[in-house]
Amino acid sequence: MLYVDRQNRICGFLDIEENENSGKFLRRYFILDIREDSFVWYMDNPQNLPSGSSRVGAIKLTYISKVSDATKLRPKVEICSVMNAGMRKYFLQANDQQDLVEWVNVLNKAIKITVPKQSDSQPNSDNPSHQGECGKKQVSYSTDIGGGVPIITPTQKEVNECGESVDRNNLKRSQSHLPSFTPQPPPDSAVIKLVFCKTRSSDEKLEEKLFSIG
Which residues form a coiled coil (predicted)? Predict the structure, then answer.
Protein backbone atom coordinates (compact mmCIF):
# COMPACT_ATOMS: atom_id res chain seq x y z
CA MET A 1 0.00 0.00 0.00
CA LEU A 2 1.12 3.57 -0.61
CA TYR A 3 1.75 6.22 2.07
CA VAL A 4 3.13 9.76 2.51
CA ASP A 5 6.62 10.14 4.00
CA ARG A 6 8.06 13.01 6.05
CA GLN A 7 8.99 14.92 2.92
CA ASN A 8 5.38 14.83 1.74
CA ARG A 9 6.19 12.32 -0.99
CA ILE A 10 3.91 9.43 -1.95
CA CYS A 11 5.74 6.14 -1.56
CA GLY A 12 5.04 2.42 -1.87
CA PHE A 13 5.95 -0.88 -3.51
CA LEU A 14 4.97 -1.91 -7.03
CA ASP A 15 6.10 -4.58 -9.48
CA ILE A 16 7.34 -3.10 -12.76
CA GLU A 17 8.16 -4.60 -16.14
CA GLU A 18 11.51 -2.84 -16.56
CA ASN A 19 12.32 -4.49 -19.91
CA GLU A 20 9.45 -3.76 -22.29
CA ASN A 21 7.43 -6.81 -23.41
CA SER A 22 9.65 -9.11 -21.35
CA GLY A 23 6.75 -10.30 -19.19
CA LYS A 24 9.05 -10.21 -16.16
CA PHE A 25 7.97 -8.02 -13.23
CA LEU A 26 10.40 -6.95 -10.53
CA ARG A 27 9.61 -5.63 -7.04
CA ARG A 28 10.62 -1.99 -6.66
CA TYR A 29 10.11 0.86 -4.18
CA PHE A 30 8.50 3.90 -5.85
CA ILE A 31 8.57 7.55 -4.78
CA LEU A 32 6.27 10.15 -6.34
CA ASP A 33 7.85 13.55 -5.74
CA ILE A 34 5.59 16.27 -7.15
CA ARG A 35 7.88 19.13 -6.09
CA GLU A 36 10.78 17.56 -8.02
CA ASP A 37 8.50 16.62 -10.93
CA SER A 38 9.69 13.03 -10.80
CA PHE A 39 8.52 9.44 -10.36
CA VAL A 40 11.51 7.32 -9.28
CA TRP A 41 12.05 3.77 -8.08
CA TYR A 42 14.73 1.95 -6.06
CA MET A 43 15.65 -1.63 -5.36
CA ASP A 44 14.20 -1.16 -1.86
CA ASN A 45 13.27 1.59 0.57
CA PRO A 46 16.27 3.99 0.52
CA GLN A 47 16.31 3.83 4.33
CA ASN A 48 17.14 0.13 4.04
CA LEU A 49 19.78 0.61 1.37
CA PRO A 50 23.44 1.56 1.90
CA SER A 51 24.15 5.27 1.91
CA GLY A 52 24.58 6.67 -1.58
CA SER A 53 22.67 3.88 -3.31
CA SER A 54 21.44 5.06 -6.70
CA ARG A 55 17.92 4.71 -7.99
CA VAL A 56 17.01 2.10 -10.56
CA GLY A 57 14.86 4.29 -12.78
CA ALA A 58 13.18 7.68 -13.03
CA ILE A 59 10.58 9.42 -15.20
CA LYS A 60 9.72 13.11 -15.34
CA LEU A 61 6.03 13.69 -14.62
CA THR A 62 5.83 15.96 -17.66
CA TYR A 63 6.65 12.95 -19.86
CA ILE A 64 3.74 10.90 -18.51
CA SER A 65 0.56 11.41 -20.52
CA LYS A 66 -1.84 8.98 -18.87
CA VAL A 67 -2.07 6.13 -16.34
CA SER A 68 -4.91 3.64 -16.61
CA ASP A 69 -6.05 0.09 -15.88
CA ALA A 70 -4.32 -2.41 -18.19
CA THR A 71 -6.60 -5.42 -17.65
CA LYS A 72 -7.58 -5.51 -21.34
CA LEU A 73 -4.02 -4.89 -22.56
CA ARG A 74 -2.41 -7.54 -20.36
CA PRO A 75 -5.18 -9.98 -19.45
CA LYS A 76 -2.68 -12.54 -18.17
CA VAL A 77 -1.26 -10.10 -15.61
CA GLU A 78 -3.49 -9.52 -12.62
CA ILE A 79 -4.03 -6.11 -11.01
CA CYS A 80 -1.97 -4.33 -13.67
CA SER A 81 -1.89 -0.71 -14.79
CA VAL A 82 -0.16 0.95 -17.72
CA MET A 83 1.76 4.23 -17.64
CA ASN A 84 2.22 6.00 -21.01
CA ALA A 85 5.45 7.97 -21.10
CA GLY A 86 6.54 9.14 -24.53
CA MET A 87 6.97 6.17 -26.88
CA ARG A 88 7.17 3.70 -24.00
CA LYS A 89 4.46 1.94 -22.02
CA TYR A 90 5.37 0.96 -18.45
CA PHE A 91 3.27 -1.83 -16.93
CA LEU A 92 2.91 -1.77 -13.14
CA GLN A 93 1.43 -4.52 -10.95
CA ALA A 94 -0.09 -3.54 -7.59
CA ASN A 95 -0.60 -5.57 -4.42
CA ASP A 96 -4.41 -5.51 -4.69
CA GLN A 97 -7.21 -3.74 -6.53
CA GLN A 98 -7.44 -0.91 -4.00
CA ASP A 99 -3.71 -0.30 -4.25
CA LEU A 100 -4.01 -0.21 -8.04
CA VAL A 101 -6.82 2.36 -7.99
CA GLU A 102 -4.94 4.61 -5.54
CA TRP A 103 -1.76 4.60 -7.62
CA VAL A 104 -3.67 5.36 -10.82
CA ASN A 105 -5.49 8.26 -9.14
CA VAL A 106 -2.44 9.89 -7.54
CA LEU A 107 -0.37 9.60 -10.72
CA ASN A 108 -3.08 11.09 -12.94
CA LYS A 109 -3.58 13.91 -10.44
CA ALA A 110 0.17 14.61 -10.40
CA ILE A 111 0.49 14.85 -14.18
CA LYS A 112 -2.61 17.01 -14.60
CA ILE A 113 -1.65 20.42 -15.89
CA THR A 114 -3.71 23.42 -14.82
CA VAL A 115 -3.38 26.50 -17.01
CA PRO A 116 -4.14 29.72 -15.05
CA LYS A 117 -6.60 32.08 -16.66
CA GLN A 118 -5.29 35.45 -17.57
CA SER A 119 -6.85 38.20 -15.52
CA ASP A 120 -8.93 40.59 -17.60
CA SER A 121 -8.52 43.32 -14.99
CA GLN A 122 -4.83 43.80 -15.71
CA PRO A 123 -4.10 46.17 -18.60
CA ASN A 124 -1.95 44.93 -21.41
CA SER A 125 1.08 47.20 -21.75
CA ASP A 126 1.84 45.78 -25.23
CA ASN A 127 -1.55 46.72 -26.59
CA PRO A 128 -1.08 49.66 -29.00
CA SER A 129 -4.60 50.87 -28.25
CA HIS A 130 -3.34 52.03 -24.86
CA GLN A 131 -0.51 54.05 -26.35
CA GLY A 132 -0.35 57.34 -28.26
CA GLU A 133 -1.90 60.70 -27.67
CA CYS A 134 -5.14 61.06 -25.81
CA GLY A 135 -8.17 62.40 -27.65
CA LYS A 136 -9.18 65.99 -27.17
CA LYS A 137 -12.56 67.35 -26.12
CA GLN A 138 -14.32 69.94 -28.24
CA VAL A 139 -14.29 73.54 -27.04
CA SER A 140 -16.11 76.70 -28.18
CA TYR A 141 -14.37 79.53 -30.06
CA SER A 142 -14.96 83.23 -30.68
CA THR A 143 -14.03 84.97 -33.95
CA ASP A 144 -12.82 88.60 -34.17
CA ILE A 145 -11.66 90.66 -37.15
CA GLY A 146 -8.46 92.61 -36.71
CA GLY A 147 -6.83 94.42 -39.62
CA GLY A 148 -8.91 92.44 -42.10
CA VAL A 149 -7.63 89.11 -40.66
CA PRO A 150 -10.02 86.78 -38.81
CA ILE A 151 -8.64 85.82 -35.38
CA ILE A 152 -10.06 82.65 -33.80
CA THR A 153 -9.70 82.39 -30.03
CA PRO A 154 -10.95 79.57 -27.75
CA THR A 155 -13.28 80.79 -25.03
CA GLN A 156 -11.68 78.36 -22.53
CA LYS A 157 -8.57 76.28 -22.17
CA GLU A 158 -8.67 73.09 -24.17
CA VAL A 159 -8.66 69.96 -22.01
CA ASN A 160 -7.79 66.59 -23.39
CA GLU A 161 -9.02 63.24 -22.14
CA CYS A 162 -5.85 62.71 -20.12
CA GLY A 163 -6.88 65.60 -17.87
CA GLU A 164 -4.09 67.88 -19.12
CA SER A 165 -4.91 71.50 -20.04
CA VAL A 166 -3.55 72.89 -23.28
CA ASP A 167 -2.62 76.55 -23.35
CA ARG A 168 -4.41 78.55 -26.02
CA ASN A 169 -1.04 80.02 -27.05
CA ASN A 170 -0.12 76.59 -28.39
CA LEU A 171 -3.17 76.41 -30.63
CA LYS A 172 -2.37 76.83 -34.29
CA ARG A 173 -4.43 79.06 -36.52
CA SER A 174 -6.23 77.12 -39.19
CA GLN A 175 -5.00 77.76 -42.71
CA SER A 176 -8.55 77.60 -44.00
CA HIS A 177 -9.41 80.82 -42.13
CA LEU A 178 -6.65 82.88 -43.70
CA PRO A 179 -7.90 85.41 -46.32
CA SER A 180 -6.85 85.06 -49.92
CA PHE A 181 -5.75 88.72 -50.06
CA THR A 182 -3.10 90.72 -48.30
CA PRO A 183 -4.72 93.29 -46.00
CA GLN A 184 -3.58 96.89 -46.37
CA PRO A 185 -2.59 98.78 -43.22
CA PRO A 186 -4.80 101.76 -42.31
CA PRO A 187 -3.42 105.22 -43.29
CA ASP A 188 -1.58 107.25 -40.73
CA SER A 189 -3.81 110.30 -41.22
CA ALA A 190 -7.14 110.51 -39.48
CA VAL A 191 -10.34 109.90 -41.43
CA ILE A 192 -12.22 113.12 -42.42
CA LYS A 193 -15.97 113.04 -42.92
CA LEU A 194 -17.72 115.64 -45.15
CA VAL A 195 -21.36 116.62 -44.64
CA PHE A 196 -23.71 119.22 -46.21
CA CYS A 197 -25.68 121.55 -43.94
CA LYS A 198 -28.10 124.43 -44.62
CA THR A 199 -27.44 127.73 -42.89
CA ARG A 200 -29.42 130.95 -42.72
CA SER A 201 -27.57 134.14 -43.75
CA SER A 202 -28.10 137.61 -42.40
CA ASP A 203 -30.67 138.35 -45.01
CA GLU A 204 -32.47 135.16 -43.98
CA LYS A 205 -31.60 133.20 -47.08
CA LEU A 206 -30.88 129.50 -46.83
CA GLU A 207 -27.52 128.48 -48.10
CA GLU A 208 -25.93 125.02 -48.31
CA LYS A 209 -22.38 124.81 -47.07
CA LEU A 210 -19.93 121.86 -46.85
CA PHE A 211 -18.52 121.14 -43.42
CA SER A 212 -15.71 118.77 -42.49
CA ILE A 213 -15.75 116.73 -39.26
CA GLY A 214 -12.36 115.60 -37.93
Answer: none
